[in-house]
Specification:
The complex is a heterodimer of chains A (112) and B (114). Chain A contains no helices and eleven strands. Chain A is mainly beta and 112 residues long. In chain A, strands 1-11-8-3-4 form a five-stranded mixed β-sheet, with no helix packed on it. The model of chain A has no long low-confidence stretch (mean pLDDT 92). With 114 residues, chain B is an all-beta fold. Chain B has no helices and eleven strands. Chain B is globular. Classes of the chains: A mainly beta (112), B mainly beta (114). Chains A and B meet through strand 3, strand 4 and strand 10 of A and strand 5, strand 6, strand 9 and strand 10 of B.
Chain lengths: 112, 114
C-alpha cells in the first residue's frame, strides 16, 4: 500500500500561489495520486488526480515528479475560501472497488 | 444533479435508541461509502457497497449496520451506540471513468450519543 506524507500545516497569502507537497515514495507504477480537500464542517471535495503527467483543471494543477515519488498541488491564486485541509491519497484496490484512505492531510490557512 | 444528500444533518440519540442515517444520490453511481470522522481527525472508511452488495467492511462493530436497498440509497442503522461513537458520519458515491474513481461526498450527519 502506498502511504503518503504531508506537512501538517501551511500558510499562504491571499492572491499568491499555494504549493502543497506530498511524498508517496512507495507508489506502484499503476497507482494514481488523488487530491481532495475538506473545508470546515463540509464533506471532502475532489480536486484533481494524476498518474505521471502533470494535470490541470479549473481548481488546481498537479505536478508529479518523474520518479513519481512525490507530487505538488498548486492553487495558483489562493483565496480565503481555499482555507481547508488538503489530502493527498493513493487509493488501495479493495477488490470490487478502490479504498480511499485519508491520511492526516495539510491544513492550509490562507491569510488576508 | 451532482449531489449526495444526507439526512438528518444532526442527530442526538441515547445509548438504548435505534436510529438510521440516510444517504441518497441520483448520479447513477454504483459504489457508495460510509465514513466516520471524529473532530480534528481525517475521515475513516467504514463500509463500501458496490452494485448494492457489501464490498468492504473495515472491521466495524456490529452496532453499525449498513444497508443498500437500491442503487440510489444507502442507510446506516445504529443500535446500542456508545458515547465514543459520536462523530460526523459521511456518505459518498463514486464515478468510475477510465480506470480512475472520483468520490462525491455529502455534508454528513453530526451524531451525538448521550
Amino acid at each position: 500500500d502506498a502511504k503518503t506524507t504531508q506537512p501538517p500545516s501551511m500558510d499562504c497569502a491571499e492572491g499568491r500561489a499555494a504549493n502543497l507537497p506530498c511524498n508517496h515514495s512507495t507508489i506502484s507504477g499503476n497507482e494514481y495520486v488523488y487530491w481532495y480537500r475538506q473545508i470546515h464542517s463540509q464533506g471532502p471535495q475532489y480536486i484533481i488526480h494524476g498518474l505521471k503527467n502533470n494535470e490541470t483543471n479549473e481548481m488546481a494543477s498537479l505536478i508529479i515528479t518523474e520518479d513519481r515519488k512525490s507530487s505538488t498541488l498548486i492553487l495558483p491564486h489562493a483565496t480565503l475560501r481555499d482555507t481547508a485541509v488538503y489530502y493527498c491519497i493513493v487509493p488501495r484496490y479493495g477488490g470490487a472497488t478502490n479504498k480511499l484512505i485519508f491520511g492526516t492531510g495539510t491544513l492550509l490557512a490562507v491569510q488576508p | 444533479d451532482t449531489e449526495v444528500t444526507q439526512t438528518p444533518k444532526h442527530l442526538v440519540m441515547g445509548m438504548t435508541n435505534k436510529k438510521s442515517l440516510k444517504c441518497e444520490q441520483h448520479m447513477g453511481h454504483r459504489a457508495m461509502y460510509w465514513y466516520k470522522q471524529k473532530a480534528k481527525k481525517p475521515p475513516e472508511l467504514m463500509f463500501v457497497y458496490s452494485y448494492e452488495k457489501l464490498s468492504i467492511n473495515e472491521s466495524v462493530p456490529s452496532r453499525f449496520s449498513p444497508e443498500c436497498p437500491n442503487s440510489s440509497l444507502l442507510n446506516l442503522h445504529l443500535h446500542a451506540l456508545q458515547p465514543e461513537d459520536s462523530a460526523l458520519y459521511l456518505c459518498a458515491s463514486s464515478q468510475v471513468r477510465g480506470g480512475t474513481e472520483k468520490l462525491f461526498f455529502g455534508s454528513g450527519t453530526q451524531l451525538s450519543v448521550l
